[in-house]
Design brief:
Length: 190
């Protein structure tokens, strides 16, 4: 099973429409997770035409950043948790990565998903920085942003995949290019 990972599309702020390369990167996925800061819910509808899609409401979607609140939508929630091929995957916009002494990934999982929830993987966004870590026993994957990578100006950025086979999740991060995808390493915070 392949799950497409995308976050922080910022449409129409970044561009009138999401780059075609981002949609093409999601072709062939069995599911798509969007980790928030969508700004225009039509992006989620279009992704859902490619594969079943779930999206997390980001700080740019909930009105807290001064932007319009995204309307209620059946594919949009503050956080989701689903089991894919035996792997429990959470989706939210913000995780404390890197962890802080007063706020950890375990704290965030409890806050977003409940005290009894045990996740194998948590997909998040917010930082625009693509990153893979294992913290508090949870594989944490941030696909970055396909439109504002590393908070730079609007340009082709990154997406990710979570490949699940026999109950094992393997994440990967990819740079969008006009020619297709190029593998990229996890970006460390500076």
């Amino acid at each position: 099973m392949r799950i497409g990972l995308i976050s922080d599309t910022h449409i129409p702020e970044a561009a009138p429409e999401l780059w075609p390369e981002a949609y093409e990167a999601m072709e062939g996925c069995d599911a798509i997770l969007h980790a928030g800061d969508i700004y225009d819910i039509s992006v989620v509808d279009r992704l859902n035409e490619i594969a079943p899609t779930w999206a997390a409401r980001g700080n740019g979607d909930d009105g807290s950043s001064g932007r319009d609140v995204q309307p209620d939508h059946p594919l949009l929630a503050n956080a989701w948790a689903h089991t894919f091929d035996g792997v429990r995957v959470g989706l939210t916009h913000h995780l404390p990565v890197p962890e802080m002494s007063f706020y950890t990934v375990a704290d965030a999982v409890e806050r977003h998903f409940g005290a009894d929830e045990r996740l194998d993987v948590c997909v998040y966004g917010d930082t625009h920085v693509h990153r893979i870590d294992t913290l508090s026993g949870v594989l944490c994957v941030n696909p970055g942003s396909p439109t504002f990578p590393r908070n730079l100006s609007a340009q082709l950025g990154t997406v990710g995949y979570l490949d699940i086979e026999d109950g094992v999740a393997t994440p990967s991060l990819w740079q969008l290019t006009p020619e297709g995808l190029e593998p990229t390493e996890s970006w460390d915070y500076v």
